[in-house]
Amino acid sequence: MAIKWFSSKEKVGSASFYNTNITLNTIASVPFEYAYRVQVGMDEENNVVIQPLPKDKVIRGDLDEYTIYQIAIKKTYSRISSTNLMRKISESLGVEFNEKPVKFETSWDDDENILIIKTAKGVSK
After folding, report:
1. 29 closest CA partner among 14, 17, 41, 43
2. What is the pLDDT of residues 26-72, one digit of tens each?
């Protein structure tokens, strides 16, 4: 008998971009519950992607230390704080971030082990 297990990672989450951080709601935070650090990048479609990193992979030393960010995990959200990172994302997307959040939908890609923040779709209202 084949069983399909239901996962919280399959739900649509949201990411809020500010000028100092990315805040993920509870749903988008699920894959990062046990992450030691994260890497943040952009795919070919201009979506921001976040990959959780386990401690052993970070300590190994083969990753560029300037591409690794701390993630603070709280009960109802998680946050990656870096003004420099947010400036780079802002420039890449052509969107200015400030104290008012700019929200985007998120989805989890199990095959690639990344959270995709759907910034290619544009800013949601």
Report:
1. 14
2. 999 999 999 999 999 999 999 999 999 999 999 998 899 999 999 99
